[in-house]
Amino acid sequence: MAASTAVQVVLLDIGTVCPISFVKDVLFPHALKALPETVKEQWDKPEFKVYRDAFPAEYQESQEAFQAHVVDLVERDVKVSYLKSLQGYLWEEGYRSGQIKAPLFPDVAPMLARWHGQGMKLMIYSSGSVAAQKLLFKYTNAEPSDLTMLISDWFDTVNAGLKTESASYEKIASNYPGVLPSQFLFLSDNVAEVDAAIAAGMQSKVIFREGNAEVPSDVRERLQVLETFDDLEGDLNTKKLEALGKRDRSETEEVEQEAAGKEEAAPAPSNSDKTKEEEAAAEDGHKDKKLKPLDDGKAEERRPSGSAGTNRTEAELPAAPSAGTGTTISDLLNEVEQSNGN
Question: Which stretch is the leader sequence (predicted)?
Fold first, then answer.
């Protein structure tokens, strides 16, 4: 597998970390329940006016029209940014008071911590606002409850775009020029979003969780569908090792076998590769084979094993020079060689 496919960023949809029923059965009803009192008490306050002014003009002048529009959007599950921002504001008090706590799937918190520890960047991309995303990850049923420190970045329909458009994923990737699009892994429970991410060059898989609509067989044939983050661990670890320049088992064995073959075929080192000490020792040994001093001052020749001729007796050797004759060792060796040639 090429290093360019090694996952460096895991981009998560909220639907992969907690039941979709949490949003529909807990968050949406809480916002609608808190809306009337919030509108009544904060309609003209600066902190609420920011959200009110983001709505279309026809709904900004009347509290009744404003609330009716919010209810209509929620009932139709319309994903518009100004509604998502308002919902995040309405949910905040519920989270802080303890009325709301995000029920993460059991595999989520441990796996996020593990991926983070392995050096992967974790990011969230949801149709819910960034503010709502941060609240969800800050107030969870995990221990510790606040997981926001594990998340490197947050994306929603405002700062990235619609999740079913490939341009949105291209925009997210462009924020990290040092990471290739193919090194992003987007996980979602929505098939259309997965297709859009793949079209943008990202890796993407469907995470099918309890409570989700069944994934059609034709989708399972063309996309990888997993049920937990645990199913991803082996694949992501392999890709991470590749990103670090390490090899898988088969590649390692191949390299080791190649190295062993080269070692067997390598020639023995020549004299030119020896150190000066080794050369000196070899020269001394060579001389020793030709001449060995005798106790009585005579010299005995040693022929190499298997060489032509026979060893000469001591009587046949020329007499050793007496002191003061001026004969040198070289003269003696020459005389010995001449004698051997006779």
Answer: none
| The pLDDT of residue 341 | 52
User: Residue 286 contacts by C-beta under 8 Å, 6 or more apart in sequence?
Assistant: none
Burial of 240 (0-12, 13-18, 19+ CB in 10 A): middle
Annotation-wise, does 163 bind a ligand? yes
Q: Is 217 annotated as a binding residue?
A: no
Tokens 């088992």 sit on residue: 249
Residues 179-189, mean pLDDT to the nearest whole number: 97
Before 181, cis peptide (omega within 30)? no
Separation CA 147–CA 140 (nearest Å): 8
In the numeric block, which tokens belong to residue 43? 């309609």
307 annotated as a binding-site residue: no
Residue of 178, 185, 120, 130 whose CA lies nearest to 154: 130
Supply 17's token pair: 């970390």
CA 285 – CA 115 distance, rounded (Å): 65
Q: Judge whether 148 and 137 are in contact, CB under 8 Å.
A: yes
Q: Are 207 and 227 in contact (CB under 8 A)?
A: yes
pLDDT at position 337 over 80: no
Closest CA to 83 of 100, 106, 66, 97: 66
d(CA 119, CA 322): 86
- β-partners of residue 185 are 10, 203
Count other C-beta atoms under 10 Å from residue 290's C-beta. 14
